[in-house]
Design goal:
Length: 156
C-alpha cells in the first residue's frame, strides 16, 4: 500500500512501487486529465506538479513520490485552484488555445509552474519552460500568447 498526497487529499493505493504515477493517477484514482503520450517523458502530456515542480508522471514511480504533494490538472484548475491555475485556465479559454486538446493539460501545468516562479516571463522564458511539451497541432504561438495573457491576469 502506497500513500500519496494528490490535490490536497491523501490517497492510499494498492500498487507496486514501480508503477508509474501516471497510471496511479488515471487508473487507480480516476483523474483522467493527465494524459499518456509517449511513455518516455519526451512529450509532456503527462506533466503534473510534484512539490510545485513540473514532472513527467509517466517516468515518476509511485514508490519514489514519498511525502511530496502532487497536483494534477484537476487540482490546478479545480475548486482549490491556485491563482496561476485560474489565470492560465482563463487565458487558455480567452485565446481559444486548444485545438485537439490532448497536450493541453501538460502545457497548462508547465505554464502555471513557470508563472509561479516568474510573473513576467519573456518569450525565451516561456519557450524554455514549455520545451519538451509537444503540441502536434502546433498551437505554440497561441500557447505562448496565453502564457503572456495569464501573466497579465496575475498582475491585475
Amino acid at each position: 500500500m502506497i500513500k500519496l498526497k494528490i490535490n490536497g487529499e491523501e490517497r492510499s493505493v494498492d500498487v507496486d512501487a514501480d508503477t508509474p504515477l501516471l497510471w496511479v493517477i488515471r487508473d487507480e484514482i480516476g483523474l483522467t486529465g493527465t494524459k499518456f503520450g509517449c511513455g518516455q517523458a519526451l512529450c509532456g502530456a503527462c506533466t503534473v506538479h510534484m512539490d510545485g515542480q513540473p514532472v513527467r508522471s509517466c517516468q515518476t514511480m509511485a514508490g519514489d513520490v514519498g511525502d511530496a504533494q502532487i497536483v494534477t490538472i484537476e487540482g490546478l484548475v479545480g475548486a482549490n485552484a491556485t491563482p496561476e491555475g485560474k489565470a492560465v485556465q482563463a487565458a487558455w479559454r480567452a485565446l481559444d488555445v486548444v485545438q485537439c486538446g490532448y497536450c493541453q493539460s501538460g502545457q497548462m501545468m508547465s505554464a502555471a509552474a513557470l508563472l509561479t516562479e516568474n510573473k513576467k516571463p519573456s518569450d525565451d522564458d516561456i519557450n524554455a519552460a514549455l520545451n519538451g511539451n509537444v503540441c502536434r497541432c502546433a498551437t505554440y504561438q497561441r500557447i505562448r500568447a496565453a502564457v503572456h495573457d495569464a501573466a497579465r491576469r496575475l498582475e491585475a
